[in-house]
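Morning, I've got a small favour to ask if you have a moment. It would help a lot if you went through both lines with me. I owe you a coffee for this, so here goes:
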Amino acid sequence: MTLLTRRNALKLGLAGGALLAGSSLAMAQLRIVVEGANFQPLPIAIPDFASSDPAFGREIAEIVRNNLRRSGLFLPLDPASLPVQMGDVDATPDFPTWRTANVDALVMGGVERGAQISSSVRVWDTQQAAQVVGKSYNTDANSSRRVAHIISDAIYESLAGSTGYFDTRVIYVAESGPKANRVRRLAIMDQDGANVQYLTDGASMALTPRFSPDGDMVTYMNFADGNPQVYLLQLSTGRQQRLTDVGAMTFAPRFSPDGSTVAFSVEQAGATNIYTTSINGGQPLQLTSGAAIDTGPSYSPDGSRIVFESDRGGAPQIYMMRAGGGNAQRISFGQGSYSTPVWSPKGDLIAFTRQSGGQFNIGIMNADGSGERMLYSSFHAEGPTWAPNGRVIMFFQDPGGNDGPKLMSVDIWGRNLLTIPTESYASDPAWSDLRR
């Protein structure tokens, strides 16, 4: 089976043939700008996609609507209220009719499923009577949801001024069974909760999964050997192996931006320090030393620096050092203790968990530690992970009692708090990059 990739998807531009014939790209006037407390999502009309199988066209359009709605930036209008119930991707819209219906942003799509799926989409600015974007994709018959996600990304990028994040996956720890004896296994799903697959069988506990940049490798903490040890799992083959043999316990792994190296923590002789090692083996390199607990390393997107948590000053705080170790500087100075720092894919922000006053907070700060803002507060919430466009954070929240944890997301403006659907209790999420 050949999966749809962004490299082989046919992206139509101004010279893209009949799809764009007779149209011009709209100037950047129809654009979402998020600022201030009174932000209102952009109403957008998305009729059912044209198709010889109307149910299939409706299904693809509904996935697109749901993606855009969950972003918090768009308000898809009720399809039953639209002047046109099914779109025509090959025709220029009747702009006066859409303007009368108070529609500024209009999406027309078409999709056909046979031996392959062929799809196309056009986004229109009805006020300017001009096309914003037009694209077409072909893929195998099993990739219909991916087509819908990539179309959603194209719409998001054309109107929100940033790459989308819908054609992504999330790996997490699926938890089941009684609270005192939970089975914890790795699971992977699309970002909207669909297409769940279980990667480990639960015979040994698995925690803190993290994607490699290419999305094919996962590093995580495996208890198969008794004490926790860092493992690698290749998704395309199912092959697993222990990363390295050093110390009584290894944990908190994360890949470098180029995917060649894993940073992780080692507990040895009562001290916990940060090491790195190649995914192909070799001698681990120790980056920190001393009696403190140094853990939770996360690379900057350019690979030059690492943020981590350490209790070297008493309570756990966030520190930054060179990727090769040395010259660690504290960057968190708020009330309480800090943990789980994660660098934004854009390099401008660091997400973290802060515990103070009996509450857990999911927050962000600038890369130098300034501008700290709390996005969510709860009895127990931790483990932030970034969407690849750096605009949304996913984390897990545990309400306590007999219930278990669930996945949630919030945007960097502290808006649009969502619960992510999962088949079981869920914790330790990690967001993939856009699929390739």
In short: The longest helix spans residues 54-71. The chain has two domains: 6-159, 169-431. The helical segments are 54-71, 95-100, 144-160.
